[in-house]
Write a structure and sequence with these properties.
The protein is mainly α and 247 residues long. The protein has 3 domains: 68 residues, Arc Repressor Mutant, subunit A (Orthogonal Bundle), CATH 1.10.10; 134 residues, Orthogonal Bundle (Tetracycline Repressor, domain 2), CATH 1.10.357; 31 residues, no CATH class. Helix content is 64%, strand content 3%. The chain contains 11 helices and 4 strands. A hairpin with a 6-residue loop joins strand 2 and strand 3. Helix 1 packs across helix 2.
């Protein structure tokens, strides 16, 4: 009896696992199909029926995963937005210098925005006339900026950014600069165009200009063990307690 119960449990677990895998596959299929059609036709010109036909599922299946077309678009934006890699990059560069983290963020954004240019153009051109798109875009941008600001605030707490800097404003400046750069180059230039290929060097200005350079006292090192300064310029002591500096 016990063996039979165990076998039944195993079969049930396998069945549930297959169902979950199938559900994940269907949801991903709908997201991929919707992303492609939104990029090709635009949000307004793409119907729920267009998406389900292209995905080979019924409308009932789509509505099982998404309340409506706007909810589907929001999910597509969360998955395929040029900002989608921000949190992963922030986590991966937690111990890297601020400049390296900003470079990674900017490079990822400009790469993805070029790769997904048609979708981005659809989003930017239709959002002013579609409240659902505008809301989704505002939430996505706002979430990305808040994530960067929180990261910079932590770096500031650790002494890597001067204490008097407005990190929230720096995060907005970074994202704003990247968007302006895309609009003045990639928005007009097609994929593979030299203007798009030359985008990454501009990160030196866009990224590093967003968070001002560390003040001179932050660049000092303790003469006895090369540890960085602790506290403010007025305190001027190293982590080891020394006040003997080398520039």
């Amino acid at each position: 009896m016990g063996q039979k119960t165990k076998e039944t449990g195993i079969v049930t677990a396998r069945t549930e696992g297959k169902r979950q895998a199938q559900a994940a596959y269907r949801r991903e299929l709908l997201l991929e199909t919707a992303y492609r059609l939104f990029a090709e036709r635009g949000f307004r010109a793409t119907s729920v029926r267009d998406i389900t036909r292209a995905a080979g599922v019924t409308e009932a299946v789509l509505y099982h995963y998404f309340a409506n077309k706007a909810a589907l678009f929001r999910a597509v934006l969360e998955t395929y937005s040029p900002l989608a890699e921000y949190q992963q990059i922030i986590a991966e560069t937690a111990d890297a210098p601020v400049e390296a983290m900003l470079d990674r963020l900017g490079a990822a954004f400009l790469r993805l925005v070029r790769e997904r240019r048609a979708f981005v153009i659809t989003l930017l051109s239709e959002a002013p006339h579609e409240p659902d798109l505008a809301s989704a875009l505002a939430d996505t941008l706002g979430g990305a900026v808040e994530g960067v600001a929180a990261c910079l605030a932590e770096r500031q707490r650790r002494g890597e950014i001067a204490p008097d800097r407005d990190v929230a404003a720096a995060a907005r400046a970074l994202q704003g600069g990247l968007l302006v750069h895309f609009l003045t180059t990639g928005f007009v230039a097609g994929a593979g165009d030299p203007a798009a290929a030359d985008a990454l060097p501009s990160l030196d200005v866009v990224g590093h200009g967003a968070v001002p350079a560390l003040p001179p006292w932050r660049k000092r090192q303790c003469a006895c063990c090369s540890c960085p300064p602790l506290g403010s310029a007025a305190v001027a002591r190293g982590h080891c307690g020394s006040s003997n500096w080398s520039e």
